[in-house]
């Protein structure tokens, strides 16, 4: 009979494994498609699997992209276009119809983790702020009715223009006319556990005032020190922009909760109009390299040093059909033909086993069955904890991944964790939350069995 201590520890261990991850393993990227001769979505998905990119944000619900990212282990954030927000705001049925046609056909094979409603909607002319709030509420209600509200969050990305001012950070507030709408949005995000998203670009702030801003401060360098009146010291502008948003959020009474801030876009252009001395490949490389390092190490800000700030780099590709000036079309790390605009290290220390895993699961036809496997990008330490849980308190029979078992080889933690995860998932009814494991699990329609190693199915 289990001791009282064991009875207390086992449920606690279970909850720790199933709750959302506290650290960002990889980096997010914005994937726009307003360009000619871009690689196919399938090719893009294949290439990103061997990188640190573990989340991709797109600007619509392009079915070719959603299908391409199925069974890749990469999370997707999809979007309701600005022009479509008004329609979704009209009622629950409109939101549910959008969800049923644009999202549901692709899950769970494609890991869609968020829906962003519009993009910089509140600072775009002639759009109704009330429609944005109602559309967000309607979509969440549709997700709730289908039991998907824990897996898929609803938010909306803002530009820095929603702030009345951004410096000093500790004194920042929202534009007065937007405060009623912001209160509604913040209340919704706090209630549903979704992040506040902001598109933050030190480049534009520097370009507007190059004589007053040190370019190293804008490029995330650590040499400049800017002191806030409340004694916060900033070594780069992005931190100051994030804390400016934080102050505005706090000013409306939402500073004491668990509301997270996500940088939904940030990047630096490699080319600009004549006379723009800042938009160069060298500066773009410097900024994005430092931005990626910041995201990987989960650095906080002076106001909240222990906060994990999720970051989505803008952007994957240069988009030569995008409206606006030269700058707008040259934020990509890659050209339309797939060649690099400049060198940025996207290699992934946790992806060494991805190729062998893909080999194991390739060539198997899809069917009505589903399995649970480890994401190729998953941290090996977390996966080891998953194996320990599943093969211990989780009750899984793990003899097949021991030395004499048919699934012992390849002797890789990703392979062993996939077997253990799947056995646990099948045992507990194949609910999507039983394949979460701190964000390291992935539901797939492709049978991961290989050779004499057979993965159980319900």
TrEMBL record:
<protein>
    <submittedName>
        <fullName>Glucan endo-1,3-beta-glucosidase</fullName>
    </submittedName>
</protein>
């Amino acid at each position: 009979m289990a001791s009282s201590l064991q009875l207390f520890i086992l449920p606690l261990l279970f909850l720790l494994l199933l709750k959302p991850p506290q650290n960002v393993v990889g980096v997010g990227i914005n994937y726009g498609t307003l360009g000619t001769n871009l690689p196919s979505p399938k090719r893009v998905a294949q290439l990103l699997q061997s990188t640190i990119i573990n989340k991709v944000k797109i600007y619509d619900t392009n079915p070719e992209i959603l299908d391409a990212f199925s069974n890749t282990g990469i999370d997707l954030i999809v979007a309701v276009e600005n022009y479509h927000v008004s329609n979704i705001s009209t009622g629950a049925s409109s939101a549910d119809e959008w969800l049923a046609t644009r999202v549901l056909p692709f899950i769970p094979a494609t890991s869609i983790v968020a829906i962003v409603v519009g993009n910089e909607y509140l600072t775009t002319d002639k759009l109704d702020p009330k429609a944005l709030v109602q559309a967000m509420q309607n979509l969440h209600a549709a997700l709730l009715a289908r039991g998907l509200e824990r897996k898929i969050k609803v938010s909306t990305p803002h530009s820095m223009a929603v702030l009345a001012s951004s410096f000093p950070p500790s004194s920042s507030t929202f534009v007065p006319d937007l405060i009623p709408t912001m209160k509604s949005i913040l209340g919704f995000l706090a209630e549903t556990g979704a992040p506040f998203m902001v598109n933050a670009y030190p480049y534009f702030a520097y370009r507007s005032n190059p004589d007053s801003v040190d370019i190293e401060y804008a490029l995330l360098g650590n040499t400049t020190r800017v002191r806030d009146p409340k004694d916060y010291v900033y070594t780069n502008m992005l931190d100051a922009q994030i804390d400016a948003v934080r102050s505005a959020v706090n000013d409306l009474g939402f500073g004491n909760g668990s509301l997270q801030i996500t940088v939904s876009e940030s990047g630096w252009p490699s080319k600009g109009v004549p006379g723009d001395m800042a938009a160069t490949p060298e500066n773009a490389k410097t900024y994005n390299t430092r931005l990626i390092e910041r995201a990987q190490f989960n650095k906080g800000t002076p106001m909240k040093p222990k906060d994990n700030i999720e970051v989505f780099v803008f952007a994957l590709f240069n988009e030569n059909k995008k409206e606006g000036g030269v700058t707008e079309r040259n934020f990509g790390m890659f050209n339309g033909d797939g060649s690099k605009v400049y060198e940025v290290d996207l290699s992934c220390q946790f992806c060494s086993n991805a190729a062998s895993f893909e080999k194991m699961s390739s060539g198997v036809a899809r069917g009505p069955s589903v399995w649970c496997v480890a994401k190729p990008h998953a941290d090996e330490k977390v996966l080891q904890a998953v194996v320990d849980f599943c093969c211990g308190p989780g009750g899984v029979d793990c003899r097949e991944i021991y030395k004499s078992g048919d699934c012992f080889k390849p002797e890789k933690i990703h392979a062993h964790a996939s077997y253990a995860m799947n056995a646990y998932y099948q045992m507990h009814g194949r609910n999507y939350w039983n394949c979460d494991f701190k964000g390291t699990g992935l539901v797939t329609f492709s049978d991961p069995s290989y050779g004499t190693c057979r993965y159980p199915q319900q």
